[in-house]
Amino acid sequence: MARSGTEGRGVLEGAFALMEVLAHGDEVGLTRLAADAALPKATAHRLLGQLVALGAVQSRSGRYRLGARTFRLGQAWHPARALRAAAARPLRELSVTSGGLSLSLSVPEGGHTVVVGNVRGAADDRYPLHPGAVLPPGNAAELVLTAYTPEAGPPANWAVSAWIREAARIRERGLAFEHGRCVSTLSWVAAPVFSATGQVVAAVAATGTDRAQVTRLGEAVTRTAALITTNLTRLPGAAAAWSSAAGVGPGAGSGRAIAAAAGPVATGGGETA
Prior knowledge:
The protein has about 270 residues and is α+β, with helices and mostly antiparallel strands. It is about 45% helix and about 20% strand. It has helices spanning about 5-20, 30-35, 40-55, 70-75, 80-95, 140-145, 160-175, 210-215, 220-235, 240-245, 255-260, and strands spanning about 30, 55-60, 65, 100-110, 110-120, 175-180, 185-195, 200-210, 265, 270. The strands form three sheets. A five-stranded antiparallel beta sheet has the order 5-4-8-7-6, sandwiched between helices. A three-stranded antiparallel beta sheet has the order 1-3-2. The chain has a two-stranded antiparallel sheet with strand order 9-10. Strand 6 and strand 7 (about 185-195) form a beta hairpin. Helix 2 (about 30-35) packs across helix 3, helix 5 (about 80-95) packs antiparallel against helix 9 (about 220-235) and helix 6 crosses helix 7 (about 160-175). The longest helix is centred in the first third of the chain and has 20 residues, at about 80-95. The chain starts with a helix and ends with a strand.
């Protein structure tokens, strides 16, 4: 796939565009891949062939998904690895009392909120929350991450004045709630995870179809986020991992395809960070 100059950059951008589309879900056909990546179908087919040859993408019956090599590369993304290690036990413990809600650990990346760890629940049937999933705009995790990053400005569909008030409430209670605005059938509650230097680096969220159930879990989600924060500050090299990443906050990150590759570790009845 080697090229030089502008042509080389165009090839790489096309390849990453295809991988980002694949990071959103399961197997995808060529026509949809090309359309979602904004590439000519012939170009998408050629690039996919090269990615398959490299092991970055797998092909089966004319459909494509991220490959094992991408997964291995994703394991080397230190911030996600550190977060997943810090979150593994707290998320498992929260899952015991969550009543089957979907749990997710997300980070800001490239203007999106990307899942890096999860415990499956009923909400996954309505919206996939597996590692690598890009959460819909306006979800509670995004609200938390943005509220603690004032320079980021308001999230989509928020007026500045309304967002200033809402961000203050989020910071005061350490929680963000979202009911049916980003996905009509789902409610979300999220709390921030902090690094050793006090930066908000991730958000823990519980998602379900029962608004009252999600609301009641707010305090437990806050405790879980605090436990992850404590674990993260104790991990050797965790602070260096975050400071050496491409930044923290909306618009920063190391690539959605890499985050997508930071797959889950199976534990009992679900998946976790």
